[in-house]
Amino acid sequence: MTVTTPPDPLNFFWFIPTYGDGTYLGSETQQRPPEFGYFREVAQAVDRLGFGGVLLPTGQACEESWVTASGLATVTEKLKFLVALRPGVVQPAYAARQTAALDRLSNGRLLLNVVVGGNPVELAGDGVFLPHDQRYEQAAEFLRIWSGLVSGERVDFSGKHYRIEKGRLDFPPVQNPPPLYFGGSSEAGIDLAAEQCELYLTWGEPLEAVAGKIAAARSRAAARGRKLRFGIRLHFIVRETEAEAWAAADKLISRISDEQIEIAYKRFTQQMDSVGQRRMAELHGGRRDKLLVAPNLWAGVGLVRGGAGTALVGTPAQVAERLREYQALGIDTVIGSGYPHLEESYRVAELLFPELGINVARRGVSRAIQNEFGVDETARKLASAS
């Protein structure tokens, strides 16, 4: 008899909505502004619920991720913080000092998300004017310098984009070094991940597309004598019944106008040079009638949201089955989100985590009395004895 060993539970992260949050996409109704007090609520909730970490986005429309993570690290206990490392926007030596300081402040809870950027208009506002592939060339030099410094090396480097003489880091990080995560669908992006990163992230695409990206990244890493881990970035709409889940999905985009969809689609396909963003936009083509792109994989979020644009929609069992399919391809980490992020974090933890075998230590008290939440096993035994 063949005994199948169940896969290890997924590492499940959540998201801090540093650009704001709300109930409806494309609408100012029931919006939640990007305030630190709300970020703290979300971070403390997911820390308590058993999520392993949170991603903090980066960009002109977001509160600064390093400053926000520094504040959240002081009000959480176990939560890890996946913070953007921006080659080209900051100098590698300065980024190394930031890394060491935040890693020490959080007692080793820092992770780095390498973000090269895919919007030339926004990058120009940050003073970055390099074309797509040259940005990845610059990022490779940046990471070689950064990695040397945070690993305790004395760094001398002379390249096309950077020159460093006698670089050093006097205050080392707790981790040696903190792990590098990276998401990019272009050839240049996959090469960068294969060469220097620990975990390669993909946005949520159909299984065949994700399998192809994983195979390419794994092969290129192996050619360099390296191994990569893999993760996926997805939104979640999980409800007790399938009908409830799809009703929630429809409600989320019910106030988006056709004009908003058209403007967003043009921005994604004409203004941006991100291969990953183009792949997201091509899933739906700017059309409301093409949103179901694979079983339970819905592209509605991507009608107006840049970056990750797909959600897994369904019952806990359905969504868990889809995640296990991704896990079979090699995915070991999920970075999730949902609208609003506070409420959806509870739904994911309470409905989906049990299906995924994610064991969460929850605070509670043992009650031997009946109350409005039912009768626990202890009370049943006492009632039988009496």
Automatic annotation (TrEMBL):
GO function terms (MF aspect): alkanesulfonate monooxygenase activity
Keywords attached to this entry: Flavoprotein, FMN, Monooxygenase, Oxidoreductase
The enzyme's E.C. designation: 1.14.14.5
Enzyme class: oxidoreductase
Tree of life domain: Bacteria
Family listed: Belongs to the SsuD family.
Protein name: Alkanesulfonate monooxygenase
Reported function: Catalyzes the desulfonation of aliphatic sulfonates.
Residues annotated as domain Luciferase-like: 11-332
NCBIfam families (UniProt xref): alk_sulf_monoox (TIGR03565), PRK00719.1 (NF001939)
GO biological process, one term: alkanesulfonate catabolic process
Keyword Oxidoreductase: yes
